[in-house]
Amino acid sequence: MIDLHCHILPGVDDGPRELEESLAMARLAAADGIRIVVATPHLVPHAFADHPWIEESVTRLNAACREEGLPLQILPGAEVVAAPEVLQHLAALPRLGAGGYVLLEPPLVGLPNYLEELVFGLQLSGAEVVLAHPERTQIMRVKPEVFSRLAERGCVLQINVASLTGGAGRVTRRLAQGLVRDFPACVLATDAHDALHRPPLLARAATALRKLGGEARFREMTVERPGRVVGK
Ligand SMILES: [Fe+2]
Description:
Blueprint: E1 2-6, H1 19-32, E2 36-39, E3 42-43, H2 52-68, E4 73-76, E5 79-81, E6 101-105, H3 115-124, E7 128-132, H4 138-142, H5 145-152, E8 156-160, H6 161-165, H7 170-182, E9 186-189, H8 205-208, H9 214-230
Parallel strand pairs: 1-2, 2-4, 3-5, 5-6, 6-7, 7-8, 8-9
Residues 5, 7, 79, 132, 191 line the site of fe (ii) ion.
């Protein structure tokens, strides 16, 4: 499996603080059957243009995983906050792995009127867009048609495992189920931040998908479509 959204790099955001915590997450992911993790640290506007630390940190973590013999590859990426500045840095924004996709994070609270403009700008610049966990946003509760339009225009919707399994509450679960039911272009990801409270585990979502396409849909959302996103 491939996890497209994971805060696994040490000391860069609200994920793990030390390399040892990152390795604890890597061990969990590998034991869960995940073979590729895209490291997606939060990227805020002042870092849109210049982010060599992502590649450097990914290289260090890959070396540490190899040293332990973990069958896990870390790829560089970022979770790009959907701020108006995105439009000034379209070419410089990190892509997910070797693919052409940008992981864009819509705000959890608020109804920005520029989200669709950002996505179109990215698409015009040749990028493709994965929208991070729409089911967690206020937009999804108040103006779900925004995500319907974006999905129709080719965005991939990234659903969190915790949203589908109920860990984020009943409303969020119902919204996540609705997205999976209504839109074929969905991927599952962990949005993990640590080894304990928000762990990098994908397999537990298989049960939650039983009525939404079962094993075939689970595989499509955790192996096949993420594989196309990262170019694997
Ligand atoms: Fe995230």
